[in-house]
Amino acid sequence: MSGAPFREERGSGTVLVLAMIAALVMLIGVVHVLGTAAVAAAQAARGADLAALAGADAARGLTPGDPCTVAEAVAERNVTRLDSCQVTGRDGTEVFVSVSVGVPVLPASLSGEHRGPWEAARTARAGPPSTAEM
Fold first, then answer.
1. Whole domain around residue 54: which residue ranges?
2. What is the pLDDT of residue 63?
3. Which of 23, 92, 100, 107 has its CA 20 to 30 A from that of 117?
4. What is the dihedral of CA 78, 81, 83, 87, to 10 degrees?
5. How far apart are the first and last CA of the chain?
6. Could you tell me if residue 17 is inside a domain?
7. How far apart are CA 66 and CA 132, in angstroms?
8. Minimal CA–CA distance to 55: which of 24, 84, 23?
9. Checking phi first, is residue 99 left (phi over 0); if not, alpha (psi -120 to 50) or beta?
C-alpha cells in the first residue's frame, strides 16, 4: 500500500528529462548568439583598425591611391563594410573610418548568409598623434 500514491507520477521522470534537455538547448543557443556577437565585434574592430592604418599610409603617400579607396579595399579584405571615411588633419594625413560587420544567427553553412539581422560597428582613427597625446 505504500507504493500506491506514487502511481500517478509514473512517466514524470521522462517529462522532467525532456524539460531539462529543452532548457539546455536554449542555453546553448543563447551562448552561441553571444559568442558570435563577440567574434563579430572583434572582427569589426580589427577591420576598422587595419582600414584606418591603410588609409593613413595612403594619405601620407607611403602607398599609392586615394586614402578612402584604400581603406575600403582593406575593409573588404577583412570581411567588413566601410560605412564612412574622413580624411582630416592639418596636412590631410589623419583618417577616421567606421566599419560594420553582420552578426549571423546561424552558421553560414546552414543559412547560406554571412550577414545576420544585427551588425557590429566600430570606428578607428589613424594618423599622427593628436596634441592631447603629446
1. 27-107+117-126
2. 92
3. 23
4. 30
5. 87
6. no
7. 28
8. 84
9. beta
**Is residue 13 a part of any domain in this protein?**
no
In DSSP notation, 30-90 reads: HHHHHHHHHHHHHHHHHHHHHHHHHHHHHHHTSSSS-HHHHHHHHHHHTT-EEEEEEEEST
- Check residue 130 and report its DSSP letter: P
Helix pair 12-60, 67-77: axis angle to 10 deg: 150
Q: Where is average pLDDT lowest: 63-67, 80-84, 126-130? A: 126-130
- Say what the pTM is: 0.76
Number of folded domains in the chain?
1
Grid coordinates belonging to 2: 505504500
Asked whether 1 and 68 are in contact (CB, 8 A), the reply is no
Which set of grid coordinates corresponds to residue 3? 507504493
C-alpha cell belonging to residue 48: 576598422
Residue 63 lies in a domain: yes
